[in-house]
Design a protein that fits this description.
The complex is a heterodimer of chains A (about 280) and B (about 300).
Chain A lengths: L1 H33 L3 H6 L16 H4 L4 H32 L5 H10 L5 H15 L5 H25 L4 H8 L4 H12 L1 H17 L2 H6 L8 H6 L9 H31 L6
Helix pairs in contact in A: 1-13, 4-7, 4-10, 7-10, 8-9, 10-13
Chain B lengths: L5 H4 L7 H34 L18 H8 L1 H33 L5 H13 L2 H11 L6 H8 L14 H25 L4 H9 L4 H30 L2 H7 L8 H10 L4 H35 L1
Classes of the chains: A mainly alpha (about 280), B mainly alpha (about 300).
Chain lengths: ~280, ~300
């Protein structure tokens, strides 16, 4: 028995190591490429190990003549805006769907789910013409609005599942005390579903941070580009050295990774509260 | 919170208890409903409308109604059906691979071993990497001649295919990048479900002397099934509409022209918005069918599980 245990532990460690290498390699390779001089990259002469003395090169894009820092800032504005707006709307909608019966409830639920099926590419042209009429093109606010329409339904889904798992009795005493529905939501429900709120926040943030298609189509001014647009503009052009391009990719990736690792525990518990418990 | 929370503040004053109960849900749901109406339903209906016109990109408001002409020509051409086949291959392979690998990784990471925390962090990392960055690094990995992919296949004696150009390898290249990116999501969700499997279930089979795999099949898998079905649906829907990773890797060439990429190319490369909208609508119908089939199967599965 003990022998068997030890063997399976060994197999487990080896498999985990292999999976870790596969999962981590592209990120590692981004770093390795960013620290290799570009002439070596063009020669096809990239070392498997990064040259740590050149680790500072990870920031080289900030010294280049592209406004990459500015683009990162734009992406941060888009991401935080999307997160705040999505959560504000989603918290209320999730509470309504979880706790009340009302006319159009089924329709709202279906509508929210159906947005998950709509390809962005299909809505791109109609949204573009709609935003042109509303004067929302070429501004970060318009991108926050459009990202929210995709991020908010996911947040509703996560929050509703979490709220479904909260017993009614908890709110009942507050209701007897005469609290308004809004106060109950704010003071009682929200603190309980905090982990799910955090998970929804991270997912909405990623939506805003990563989004490329709308950001690229709706924004004309180079100064207002999102980092995703700026980074994609390097693909297939040769004026920016490759190591600089990868330094940009890394700087675009790092905030997302750090944010994600900090929130990881909450994401897992938030995603699974209620909905996928089995 | 933010400005959009304001409407509820203007909610009717709490008059009578009975009344308030009826008003509250509408106030709570209003923002989301209006949002859906403005930014999803409106453009969607404009898209439906556009699919019956001959609208061109350079004159987006000057389209004339031409009935079902767009649909007839789309359904009559090979390009659309190719893109349907490509979408099915892409979706099927993405769902199958991400579910198998994600579940395997979750089972692997579920029990303690030295370095587990680190391994788990790295294994979930791909999910956090922005798609454009994923594309950039995979383009470099697939780079013709010098890329890592060619070095590996060269060393294995498999030749050095041009991954993103060669129609025999384009789909594989796109699939590898996609599965790498989406598998962590499956892993995270399955891991959470695994952690809710009661220990007694494991204990019972261990006493019976069952080995790991049969324990998994007999005890854990049935417990995971509801979770896996939900994840499978999400993965299917998301794969159906995934655009960026495919378009930025191959531009829809090398046999990777999925429906969504086809829509984009028809609209922005062919400047034919009417046809693009028609293709998009047909794609939407297809994913609706998949969703309905899913819900029917889900209901049947739940009934069966209820029998046991």
């Amino acid at each position: 028995m003990l022998m068997h245990r030890r063997l399976s532990l060994g197999v487990r460690v080896v498999l985990a190591l292999a999976t870790t290498v596969l999962a981590g390699f592209p990120v590692y390779w981004m770093f390795d490429t960013a620290t290799t001089p570009s002439d070596a990259l063009y020669r096809g002469d990239q070392s498997w190990l990064p040259d740590l003395t050149r680790a500072g090169n990870v920031f080289s894009v900030l010294a280049s003549d592209t406004p990459f820092l500015r683009w990162l800032g734009n992406s941060a504005v888009i991401a935080f805006g999307t997160t705040l707006l999505s959560l504000a709307i989603a918290v209320m909608a999730a509470y309504a769907l979880s706790r009340y019966k009302f006319h159009g409830k089924g329709l709202l639920g279906f509508g929210l789910f159906a947005t998950q099926m709509l390809p962005e590419a299909l809505l791109l042209v109609p949204l573009y013409s709609l935003f042109a009429i509303l004067g929302l093109l070429n501004g970060l606010g318009g991108l926050i609005l459009v990202n929210t329409s995709f991020a908010m339904p996911v947040a509703v889904w996560i929050l509703k599942s979490a709220m479904d798992g909260v017993p009614y009795e908890i709110e009942e005493s507050a209701r007897v005390d005469g609290c308004s529905p809004f106060a109950i939501l704010q003071m009682i429900m929200l603190p309980i579903v905090m982990p799910s709120l955090a998970a929804a926040a991270v997912i909405a943030f990623f939506d805003g941070w990563n989004e490329y298609l709308f950001a690229t189509t709706f924004i004309e001014d180079r100064e207002l580009w999102a980092a995703s647009t700026g980074l994609a503009s390097f693909v297939g052009e040769f004026s920016t050295p490759l190591d600089t391009v990868f330094s940009a990719a890394l700087l675009f990736t790092l905030p997302a990774i750090v944010f994600f690792l900090l929130m990881q525990r909450r994401i897992v518990s938030g995603l699974t509260a209620g909905s996928v418990k089995g | 919170m933010s400005a959009s929370a304001a409407p509820t503040r203007d909610a009717p004053p709490p008059a009578k208890r009975r009344r308030r109960r009826q008003v509250a849900p509408y106030v709570f749901a209003a923002a989301a409903a209006l949002y859906l109406l403005a930014f999803t339903a409106t453009p969607l209906f404009r898209g439906v409308d556009m699919s019956f016109t001959d609208t061109r990109l350079l004159n987006p408001t000057g389209g004339r109604y031409i009935g079902f002409d767009n649909y007839v020509s789309v359904l009559g051409g090979a390009a659309f059906w190719n893109s349907v086949a490509t979408t099915l291959v892409y979706t099927g392979a993405t769902v199958a691979c991400s579910l198998v690998f994600g579940t395997a990784a979750a089972v692997l990471i579920n029990r303690a071993f030295p370095g587990r925390t680190f391994a788990r962090a790295v294994m979930t990392l791909p999910w956090a990497v922005p798609t454009v960055a994923v594309v950039l690094v995979f383009r470099w990995i697939y780079n013709d001649g010098t890329g890592v992919a060619n070095q590996v296949t060269g060393a294995l004696g498999l030749g050095q295919p041009n991954w993103l150009i060669d129609p025999r390898y384009g789909m594989l290249a796109v699939l590898i990048a996609t599965v790498w990116k989406v598998t962590p999501f499956v892993m995270l969700v399955v891991l959470a479900a695994l952690q809710s499997v009661p220990d007694e279930l494991y204990e019972a089979t261990r006493v019976d002397g069952a080995d790991g795999l049969s324990t998994f099949k007999a005890v854990v898998l049935p417990y995971l099934m509801p979770t896996l079905r939900v994840v499978a649906l999400l993965m299917t829907i998301w794969s159906f509409r995934r655009f960026e990773i495919i378009f930025l890797l191959t531009g829809g060439g090398a046999d990777t022209n999925t429906i969504v990429v086809h829509v984009y190319r028809e609209a922005f490369l062919n400047s034919d918005l009417g046809t693009a909208a028609a293709i998009g609508m047909l794609g939407l119908v297809l994913s609706l069918i998949v969703t309905v089939v899913y819900f029917v199967m889900e209901r049947r599965a739940m009934l069966q599980e209820g029998d046991r």
